[in-house]
Amino acid sequence: xxxxxxxxxxxxxxxxxxxxxxxxxxxxxxxxxxxxxxxxxxxxxxxxxxxxxxxxxxxxxxxxxxxxxxxxxxxxxxxxxxxxxxxxxxxxxxxxxxxxxxxxxxxxxxxxxxxxxxxxxxxxxxxxxxxxxxxxxxxxxxxxxxxxxxxxxxxxxxxxxxxxxxxxxxxxxxxxxxxxxxxxxxxxxxxxxxxxxxxxxxxxxxxxxxxxxxxxxxxxxxxxxxxxxxxxxxxxxxxxxxx
Length: 243
Description:
The chain is an alpha/beta fold. It has helices at residues 16-24, 69-82, 92-100, 123-126, 185-193, 200-214, 216-231; strands at residues 3-8, 28-33, 51-54, 87-90, 104-107, 113-118, 138-143, 145-149, 155-159, 165-171, 174-177. It has one domain (3-231): Rossmann fold (3-Layer(aba) Sandwich), CATH 3.40.50. The strands form three sheets. Strands 2-1-3-4-11-10-9 form a seven-stranded mixed β-sheet, with helices on both faces. Strands 5-8 form a two-stranded antiparallel sheet. Strands 6-7 form a two-stranded antiparallel ribbon. A hairpin with a 2-residue loop joins β10 (165-171) and β11 (174-177). α1 crosses α7, α2 (69-82) packs across α3 and α5 runs antiparallel to α6. The longest helix has 16 residues, at 216-231.
């Protein structure tokens, strides 16, 4: 049975649908909460975890001083990708992976992205074994930062109309996405409850949530298959040494 290590950064950003779907399919999950002081392992252990998933969060990828577990998380991401083990980064996880592997992240000059938008695959994205059938699929977005420079050797799999990176392939079995394919409408609505009453963000989330509810079948249809494809990714038989 496959077993994934999931790094969660805050209570409001769980594995959500992905956790449910992986559990139903027989994939085991271990959730590590760095924000609660749980230690981030230095590496994935053969026979215990076959892959790593790093979820989203409100902090920035370079905010190690305020969120010290991010340093260990980036080290674990780099080691996992280097060894060819399955890796998936989501939103903050996408940004952490970029920084961990030598890329850069900054605030989006266009401002916050918040809404239900389609994924737009590049030519490489159409050929990718994980994302190949996700072109035009709806996805939920909530981010202030973006990957401004991808790591050397990374492939851009999806882009927004303005060129903003939506998805990357970072290695043989490593991917990251800026959007939230794991996010159910209920989890998304909960993010609004964390914002002050009457704030623009809370108002925007309240406006988008009915759209997400209406798109539930489409969201589940594409992202459940995506999640199961990732869980089925196999580690190489011979792992290189850790760095």
